[in-house]
Amino acid sequence: MLELAGIIILGILAQWVAWKFKIPAILPLILIGLLVGPIAAEFITDDGSKWIEPIWNEREGLFPGE
To answer: What is the pTM of this model?
Structure first.
């Protein structure tokens, strides 16, 4: 949950910066993504497994049993 909260807070901050400087909102969102992206690599362990697991596993499909 901490990671999700951080993403939301950074998104709100990027939107505020865009509004304050009257620039397109996508620019600060992209810049924050480029800066935070390498930090996110720290959430992958040495054996390649992730600390954060996805909620939905695409191997199973949306409707199992069909």
So the answer is: 0.60
